[in-house]
Amino acid sequence: MPRYARVLVDDSAGKAFDYELPEAVAAVLQPGARVRVPVRTRTALATVIELLEETDVPGVKLISEVVSAEPILSPLLLKLGAWISDYYCCSLEAAMKAVLPNVIRKAEVGHQTRLFARLAREVEEEELEKLRKKAPLQAGVIDHLTEAAQPVSVTELAEKCDASHAVVQALVKKGLIVTEAARVERDPFGDESFVHAAPLAMNPEQTAVFEHVRRAIDHPPDAAPKPLLLHGVTGSGKTEIYLQAIQLVLERGQTAIMLVPEISLTPQTVERFKSRFAATRHEVAVLHSHLSEGERHDEWHKIRDGRARIVIGARSAIFAPCANLGLIVVDEEHENTYKQEETPRYHGRDIAVLRASMEKCAILLGSATPSLESFHNAQTGKYELLRLIARVDDKKMPFIRIIDLRMESKKHGAILSERLITAINDRLTKKEQTILFLNRRGFSTSLICEKCGHVCECPNCSVALTFHRAAARMVCHICGYQAVAPQKCPECRDPGIKYTGTGTEKVEDSVSRLFPKAVIKRLDADVMQRREAFRETLTAFRTGKIDILVGTQMIAKGLHFPNVTLVGIINADLGLHLPDFRAGERTFQLLTQVAGRAGRGDVEGEVFVQSFTPFSPSIQHARHHDFDGFWEQEIEFRRQWDYPPFTHLVLIIVRSAHQQRGSFSAETLHRRLKEELPPGVTLSEPAPAPLEKSHGSYRFHLMMRTRSIVRLSRHLRAVLDKLTFPEDVFVTVDVDAYQLL
Ligand code: ADP
Ligand code: ZN
Fold it and tell me: Would the annotation count 492 as a binding residue?
């Protein structure tokens, strides 16, 4: 029998410590259990990671309290945490924070219980008549409970029958009713009802793909099936395949997780899932960042207790405590939002692939524009490639026209080209809808003085401030700094200050001038500050109350509006010129996804792409819906420059409010890393990051590349463990970095 436990103390630096087990729990405690342990003069919460027969640590202390003897983490999730710590070069404690939701870890929020009342026995008609005369309120409660034929909460009795606490107590005293506490669930969708939607009959292409998915789900239990990559054009019926695959998994008595990029942006997907499984006993749990602590707590327990067998959520849902997992789906697997941009900087899709291999379950990655990484894995045979090349019911792919902005006149402030204006006009007459897309919010992107050339910059970051006209303020899009927009140049006092560049607010403004009769709405992060704004606007758009929707990438993702026949991309070049090797890939993906919003109904769609660089490969390949062509060109570029997927890229950022100290620390780190650099690892010279200053800190970059991440991580960790930096210098390590700014 084990006598000791190795535990990981919450909010510690991630080192594990040994404690003695109280005799009473030695037989029942399991790894993954939660305990309270003495740490110096206080006690702290901790997770048991291992049970030991003996320990060589002298004088170990006794565990003070067992918070939950049952593991709140399965051995597999513990292992996943350890893997994240190794791979992403972070402490085990930091990794476990991602694996176990805060609300469960802290154990401060519990289940919610309410008092319910039910009839203790049948009440005779005569007795009831008497009661009606003497105590009508009490009689009302009896009537209500008889009608409900199930326990009713005391709150409801108070609301519906005007029954106070005294009324309920009187009935209890008479022995007519009984009250008892029962657990109630906080359900984020509690006030919505979902009508069951039957599965659709799949077309031959879908059927063929589904056969492969079925085979993966039905694989022999001792081996993990190959991950499946489903490349299906927008509107080809991928989601229908996910739904039916999950149905199959449920029939086999298993559970499923489906990851979506950002749940608040895909309300339609959640609705579709809730409706499809509305008639089954298997609840759909939804995990996302807008849940209250209580809701998150309850959804987690619903999953752990096996009451919810389907989980939909953003990246962290990959750690959902599902038992007997049969399938993981990663929708829009190429999305950057799967990468967590704070420690631990894990990639949800990659963790999904790893968890599936540990669980030996099927995994299906789907996208209309697969990431180069995943497609490369399919090409090299690590994944199995499945394809849907046509839209459902042979709906045509939208026709894409490129507009060369260099040839356009400067009328209308050159925001909308003549041809796009004509096209919008045409849709307005035909009562069809238009989406205008620009991936930049605000009104003008910078304020520049025509006399002295002064540009209004953020005092904390090395970027220009964006002018937001509605709020009459200048805002920093990096740190959120705000200032009143100046009337004169703050430098030379000249009134000739000029607003340049275009944001969504300006697009909205100029479209309103051009089409004064049209109903125009805007959707971007500024509008979204009100939580319901997004859903309200989408509903209004879907029901035809809006003619033109202007927005940022928020409207690019997975939305389905049958009446949208025109999409205008205001400036396709925005992402192309960033100092990032993924710029081309991102532009191709964004254009394809945005274009995919057009022509999803009966009328063919049309897309106008405005660009100053109309011949750039990403734009041209997107125009021809040519993923393969894009892939061939892009993968060659990556191979030549030794970029991912051919190497792993590790970005180290050294930050400090003191420029000198930051720069000096980056150089020291570089020198140490260079000593005994493992073979096959390259290391760049330290340099100021492209975004040199952010939130008041100066930032320096070091880049490492390798084909074998294990050796690199070990070396990096060894160096970082030995080095101490000045107090105000912060070092972050980003393995498989996505944000290179
Ligand atoms: P994707 O996820 O590839 O964008 P969806 O699954 O959302 O595609 O399908 C696009 C539209 O086609 C949806 O409205 C969906 O209900 C419909 N659809 C999908 N499969 C079928 C089918 N087999 N028969 C009829 N309609 C279908
Ligand atoms: Zn700033």
Answer: yes
